[in-house]
Structures
1.
Amino acid sequence: MELNVKNRKGLAMPMVLLFIVVLSASLAAALSSTRSEIVTNSANRGQARAYNLAQSGLEQFLVRRNETGWCLNCVPDPAVADSEWTRISMPGGYADVVAVRVRPMIGKENALYFIRSKGVDTTAKISSAGGQFAERTVGVYATWNTATIDVKAAWLSLSGLDKNGTGEISGVDQCGSKPDVAGVMVPKGDLHVAGNSFFPTGSPPVDTTNSFNQLKPKVNIDWANVLTGGMVADITIPGGTFPTAADFDNDPNYWPVIRITTNDFSLPNRGRGTIIADSNFIITGSNMWDGVVLVGGELTSNGNNTTAGATLSGLNFLIGGTPSNSSIDDATANGQKTYVYNSCNVEKATTRLRRYAAIPNSWVDNVASW
C-alpha cells in the first residue's frame, strides 16, 4: 500500500518547534545547573575564607589583646567583667571576637572564658539574591591568667653576683602588701662580696641555699618564649626610641614594656615599666627604675642608682649552659646600690603581661553566633 504524504502539509513546523522547546529546556537546565554550581563553589570558597579570617582573628586576639590601643572595647581587668570584644579588620574581611566569662575566679583558680571569633568574608557575596557575605565562627575556652612574675628576691641572678662597695639590696616589700622575699638570691657559692659594708635585708637577707639546677625551675619564667615574642613590647631597641624622663613625667600611668636587643645597652635615664634585655645591660650614674628588669646576660650596675621592683639577671642560662661559680659571668654591683623589692611597682609593670591562655583540646568550629 502506498502512502500519500502530499496531504501532510505543515508537519515540519511542529517538529521544529518541538526541537526548539526541547533544546531550550536543555539549555535552561544546563544554565541553571551551572549557576547552582557557581553559587555553591562561591559559597564554599567564601566559607573557607571566612574560616581563615575567624581563626586568624582568634589567634590575634590571644596574642595582641594587651597591645596599647589595639582592643578598643577591652576592659582593664577581664576577671571582674562579664565580657569584652573587638573587631579585627584584615584583607578581605574582618573578625568579630568576643570573650565571655563563663566562670568567675574561685579562690586561686583563674576566671574561665569562652572566646568566639566570627569571620566575615567581604570579597564576594555568596548569592546575588540574598546579598549575604560568608560567615564562619570558631571558638576556644581560655583562662585569664593573672600570675605574671613569681618574685623570689629583690635581685635574683642565675649567673651569680659580684658586689663591691656599700648599698642596700632589700627583699622587704616597700609597698607592704606582699610577704617579704630574699634580698639576694644566687646559686650556691656564687655571691662574691668585697669589703664589709654590704648588709642586705629580706627573708632571708641572702639565699644561696640552692644549686643552679635547684634554682633554675624556681625562676618560673619562660625565657625562651619571651625572646621569641611571647611578651609583646611597646618599644623595641634598636628601631624604637627609649622614652625620655619627660615622657614618664607627663603620664604617671605610663608603664611600657621595653625590649632591648642591643648588647651592653646602657639605661639612658630614669623611668618605669618592664625592661627585657636579651643580653648584657648596664645601669650607670644616678638613673632609677621602677618596675621589673629582666636581663638575659650580665647586669652591670655602677654608681648611685636605685631600682624599686624586682630584678632578674643571667636568664639566658635558662635556655642553655651552666654559670661558673667564679665571678667571670656574674652580675656586678659597684658603688652605692639600692635594689629593693616593691610589689606595687611589680604589679603595675606586669599588668599588661596578664593574658588569656587557651585550654588545650577545647577549640570548636561552626559555633552558633548572632
Note: The chain has a mean pLDDT of 84.
2.
Amino acid sequence: MRLRTVALVVTLALGLLAAPLHAEAQQVGKVYRIGLLHSVSSAVTLFTGAFRQGIRELGYVEGKNYGLEIRARGAKTDRLSNLAAELVRLKVDIIVTVGFPALRAAKEATSTIPIVMITGSDPVKRGIVASMAHPGGSITGVFTMTVELSGKRLELLAEIVPGAKRIAVITTRRRMAAREEIELEAAARTLGVKLQILKARDPNAIDRAFLAMSKERAEALIMIPSARYVQHRERIIKHAA
C-alpha cells in the first residue's frame, strides 16, 4: 500500500525548492545530498518510500543526481540533536524533517542549510518560523494543521455518516491538546453528537480501544493523525471493517 498522502506532502514540499535545483541539476556529475531526519524511527521505511516516490515524480533519479542520508530517532529522545548535527557535518544540500522534534533539532543545528519541514505542530506558535506567508530564514515546507482542523474533521465525518450520534476519537497522546479538545467538543455540541475519546499508542491499546468503542456502539471514528497509526494502519482498517 502506497502512502499517497505522504507522497503528496513531500512532493509539494520539495516542489518549493525544485525550480532552482532543476536548473542547477544540469551541471554534469552534480549529485545533491538530501538529509532525511525522522522523529519516529518506526515509520522510517514507510515515509522514505513515499519520499522516494515524490521526488521521482519531480524528475530526480536516486544515485544519478541525488543521494539520501537517512537518520531517525531511536529509543533515546535526545539523539535527534546528534543526528541533525551529523547531517550538517556531512554537508547535505537540504534537510527534510518529518515531525516537529526533528524540525526543532535541524533548526538548532544549522541556519544555512535549507530545511523542508513536514509537521503537525504550528511552527509559528512554536517559534520556528516568523509566519506562514513569510517564514523567513532557511525553513519552508508543509504544516498539516492537525489541531486546527480537528473540528472540521468532525463536521466532514457527520456529512459522510449522517445521523451518527456516537463518534469515537482515538489519539496517541496521554492527554489531548487543549486546543484540539476544544475544537472537537465545540463541533460536537453544534452537531449534537457524543464523543468517546480513547488513547491508544501501541497495537494492544488499539485493540482495547476498538473493543471499548464497540461496547459504546460508536457509529463512526476519527483517528487523530500520528505516524504510529500509519505504522499500524492494516490493524486499524481490519478493526474498523
Note: The mean pLDDT is 81.
3.
Amino acid sequence: MATPRPSLQDPKKWSATSSNFTFVGHKEDVVVKMTSEKLASRLKTNVVVAAGIHWDEISAKDIEIIQHLTVRLSDQILKKLGRAR
C-alpha cells in the first residue's frame, strides 16, 4: 500500500511512501512497490496493489519483461482514469 506525499526533493511535486508485505521466497514486492507508489503519487490518494506471480524457472529477461508490462499496465490505469502524463 502507498500513500501520497509532497516530494522530499521538491515539495511542488508529488511522491509516495509505501509499505509492502511479501511472503518468503516471493519477489512481487518489486513490481507492487513500483506500481503502488506511481499510482498514489499521480492520483494523490492512498492505493493498495496486490500481486501474485508464479513462474517456474524464470529468467532475468522474463523478469525484465514482467517489470516492463507492469509499467505499461500502470500507465493504462492512469490513462483510463484520465491521469496520464
Note: The chain has a mean pLDDT of 92.
4.
Amino acid sequence: MNIEKLQEGEVLTLVLDGKLDTQTAPQLEAVLLPALGEAKKTVLDFTKVSYVSSAGLRVLLQGQKKSVRGNVSMTITGVAPSIMEIFELVGFADVLNILTVPK
C-alpha cells in the first residue's frame, strides 16, 4: 500500500492506494495514529483502496477512538460501494464518518 500525506492548513489528507489488509494495516497504523495528533481534521481518501480486511478495520476503529478522545475530525472519503458494504456489515457505517462515491 502506498500512503501519501497532503497537508493543507489544518486538514491532513492521507491518500491510500492498494489493499488494506493484514500486511498493510501496520503501515497505515504507523501513519494514521500519529497524524491524528498533527491536524484538527484528518481525511482518509479511499478512492484507490480496493480491499479492506479485519486488520484494516481494526486500525480504522483505533483511529476513530483516538480522534474522539483528541477532539479531532476523522473522515473517510471516496469509499467504493463494495467497501461500503463491508463497513455496513460490521456496523462501521454508524461509527465512522464516511463519504461514499456515487454508484
Note: The chain has one domain: 2-100.
